[in-house]
Amino acid sequence: MHKPINKHQISKHRVSKATNRLCCFVSVCCLIALLSNCAGQRTILQENKKVSGGLVSGKAEEPRYGQTQVWFIKSVGDKFEIVPRLNVYRLSDSEDDGRTPLMRTLEIAVSALVEGPSAEAEARGLGSEIPKGTVLISVTKAKGEGIALNLSKRFLAGSGADSFEMRMDQLKRTVKAVAPSEGGIKVFLNVEGERVSQATGDGIDVAQPINQ
Length: 212
Prior knowledge:
The radius of gyration is 37 Å and the shape is globular. The model is unreliable at 47-57 (pLDDT under 50). The protein has helices at 7-52, 101-115, 119-123, 161-178, and strands at 55-56, 59-60, 65-76, 79-90, 126-127, 136-141, 147-151, 187-191, 194-195. The chain folds into two domains: 7-51; 65-195, no CATH class. By secondary structure, it is an alpha+beta fold. The termini are far apart. Helix 4 links the parallel strand 7 and strand 8. It has a four-stranded mixed β-sheet with strand order 6-7-8-9, covered by helices on one side. Strands 4-3-5 form a three-stranded antiparallel β-sheet.
């Protein structure tokens, strides 16, 4: 004989199935929301990584370079000539020191000059009359107008009138390559903070500004 169907049990079974379906639906919705949130965070992290790593449109920013001429000495036969050498330098991303781009370029050029030619350039016959140990102390705004190059007193060290005239010629040409007289910016030479008017001991007049 068949047992009579219990309507209460059927109803309870239907409620249980409905509850299970609801729980499954809620679980699926929560899972979808969680995955979407993770994907969004991953995208944000990737974008932040691009920005912090200096990436633009997935490519790294390429460094920028500038160039100027630095003048050295070369022996040609029984004479010496002053010849230019191209100086390539990397441009800084940001400079917030109150100086103009012209002042920063002057600093780069004159620093390369007082440092002297590289060993490779020396092997090819380049030299310099700038005394070893000369230091560019600063490049600042001159009192009144223009720009002041401040060199260490080593620049005035002896070796005679011919040597001093040649080193001044090296300096003037290097400065004019950056700040030609046509540009209207006057560049003055100081040594240890004092304006130079005459070479110590040699009695050679130093015309100021040196880029005129």
